[in-house]
Specification:
- There is one protein chain.
- By secondary structure, this protein is of the alpha+beta class.
- The chain is built from 12 helices and 27 strands.
- Among the domains are: 219 residues, FAD/NAD(P)-binding domain (3-Layer(bba) Sandwich), CATH 3.50.50; 87 residues, Glutaredoxin.
- Strands 1, 2, 8, 9, 10, 11, 18 and 19 form an 8-stranded mixed beta sheet that branches. A 7-stranded mixed beta sheet has the order 6-5-13-14-15-12-16, sandwiched between helices. It has a 7-stranded mixed beta sheet with strand order 22-21-25-24-23-26-27.
- The chain is globular, with a radius of gyration of 23 Å.
- Bound molecules: flavin-adenine dinucleotide.
- The site of flavin-adenine dinucleotide (FAD) has 34 residues, from α1, β2, β16 and α8.
């Protein structure tokens, strides 16, 4: 039988599997990625990229292509009895170390198509119309049997195969689901309305807050309508929308997607099997769409996992590092379930003030999750484990953002000093970037960097691994992961 040898076998090419494949390529790691579908998503599903995802896209060169396609949105509003009673954006405005303080409203299909095309151009196209029929974990590798008759021998397997994950079921990883009996209709389309259109997320307060208007790219708009039952027609949804936005009227000129989803909440009991098989994205966490966190959390899983697999492949198996994928990401999934769960229940069960005002209050409270900027990998309120703040630098008079010069395939040692570059030997997986003041002779200069006279060892996913005094830089020579 035909056996393909690779480093990583990726099962599922939704946004998370596609991102894993791209990050493997960027890290010069071999990967095979398969999907049962015949092409990327055409319409529907996720509609918002948060500020952290935008920063991560900057590191891997996707930001410039994607950003112009979407619509920035940072305001959550409440509309009641014919007028706006609240319009808030403080949790975005107050973000530090970030240049894009908003959601980028953009359909999931744009993200999938862009990465899918990129992989094709890189000669690493998704193998489509193909599923995995078996996965064996052997002593030093995995053996995956595909539905096309091929076998793939790999060091690692990633299950990025969505909420009904074959990989999760194959290894009997518990995934008990809570069903709060809430059913949403979703409508994407081109609207006609006398409502003064604004690029804001609007929660409408009628008896409960069962209608939300989500701005989207181009001339598309999205409506979420809570229906609480599985049997309903488009007219029922339009009736609720029109009741909520009285005295204004709305109809759809064209409909691109009309679907429903029943809220389900779960986190996999474990994210890995024997340090060889890993779950990422919806295969290991599902929850309500409120707060727009599913796709963003899945992409952050991919960014957290892939550099660890890369280091492990290149530097020798790093058990502790691989284990940190679960210890870092599983609590994040739990917090996402808590925040999206509080939001979705507030549309129905909130008792204080109005449901819609209560909803926006919870958005503010859970802003760390919703913006993605409050996720950190250490409990202490210190730099280690926190995200690197973005800031402006100049290189040969060209203005850049620090995130645009980070490299996902290695750690960055950022030395903030006007002094001469110290002579240090760094391991091959560390790249040194010296940032001087605006009058220094450094190639990278920053007028007002958020860090001064210090060195930061920054992980490939732009979280701070270590803070070093400038006179301690010698330690970096012996730095182990
Ligand atoms: C209506 C709706 C609205 C949403 N809105 C938002 C939002 O606003 N913001 C947000 O962040 N998230 C949102 N989400 C969630 C978001 O769509 C998911 O979190 C995201 O798609 C997860 O990506 P994934 O790659 O993990 O899984 P998926 O997108 O489900 O991809 C899994 C892939 O695996 C493939 N596959 C499955 N089984 C196999 C197999 N056995 N073999 C091979 N291939 C397989 C599938 O074909 C698919 O391509 C929404 C979801 C829905 C349904």
């Amino acid at each position: 039988m035909n056996v393909v040898d690779t480093d990583i076998m990726i099962i599922g090419a939704g946004p998370v599997g596609l991102m894993c494949a791209l990050l493997a390529h960027i890290s010069s790691v071999d990967a095979v990625v398969i999907d049962k579908s015949h092409g990327p998503l055409e319409v529907g599903r996720a509609d918002a990229l948060n500020a952290r995802t935008l920063q991560l896209f900057e590191i891997v060169g996707l930001f410039d292509e994607l950003y112009p396609l979407g619509k920035p949105c940072n305001t959550s509003s409440v509309f009641k009895e014919g007028k706006f009673i609240s319009r808030q954006s403080s949790w975005w405005d107050e973000l530090e170390g970030c240049f894009h303080k908003h959601f980028l409203m953009l359909g999931q299909s744009h993200i999938e198509k862009l990465i899918d095309e990129k992989l094709k151009r890189l000669g690493a196209a998704v193998v489509r119309g193909t599923t995995a029929t078996d996965i064996q974990v052997l002593e030093d590798h995995c053996l995956t049997t595909l539905s096309n008759g091929q076998m793939v021998k790999s060091r690692y397997v990633i299950g990025a195969d969505g909420s009904r994950s074959y990989v999760r079921r194959r290894f009997n990883i518990p995934f008990s689901i809570v069903r709060p009996q809430i059913v949403w209709a979703v409508i994407d389309g081109v609207i006609e309305s006398d409502f003064p259109k604004v690029p804001e997320i609007i929660v409408f307060q009628a008896d409960t807050s069962d209608v939300a208007w989500i701005p989207r790219e181009g001339d598309i708009d999205r409506f979420y309508v809570r229906m609480d039952q599985k049997e309903f027609a488009l007219e029922d949804c339009l009736g609720k929308i029109n009741r909520a936005m009285q005295p204004y009227r709305l109809e759809f000129k064209t409909i691109a997607w009309f679907s429903q989803f029943s809220v389900k909440e779960s986190v996999a009991a474990s994210y890995s099997v024997d340090d060889k098989v890993f779950l990422a994205g919806d295969s290991c966490h599902i929850h309500s769409v409120n707060g727009g966190q599913g796709l963003n959390t899945g992409l952050a899983d991919a960014f957290n996992l892939m550099w660890k697999l890369n280091m492990s492949l290149k530097q020798g198996h790093a058990t502790q590092l691989l284990a940190s994928y679960e210890t870092e990401r599983l609590p994040v999934a739990k917090s996402v379930i808590e925040s999206s769960g509080a939001l979705v229940r507030a549309t129905k069960d909130g008792k204080e003030t109005t449901h819609a005002e209560n909803y926006v209050r919870i958005v503010k409270e859970k802003a760390g999750n919703i913006t993605g900027m409050g996720i950190r990998y250490s409990r202490d309120d210190q730099l280690v484990g926190s995200r690197l703040h973005d800031f402006e630098i100049t290189e040969d008079d060209a203005i850049k953002r620090i995130y645009s010069i980070l490299n996902y395939s290695c750690y960055s040692l950022l030395i903030f000093s006007d002094e001469d570059k110290p002579t240090i030997n760094v391991p091959e997986f560390v790249r040194v970037i010296c940032v001087g003041g605006k009058d220094s002779d450094k190639s990278f200069k920053a007028k007002d960097p958020p860090y001064k006279n210090v060195a930061l060892l920054v992980r490939p996913d732009a979280y701070i691994h270590e803070v070093l005094d400038l006179d301690q830089l010698g330690c970096i020579e012996n730095c182990a992961l």
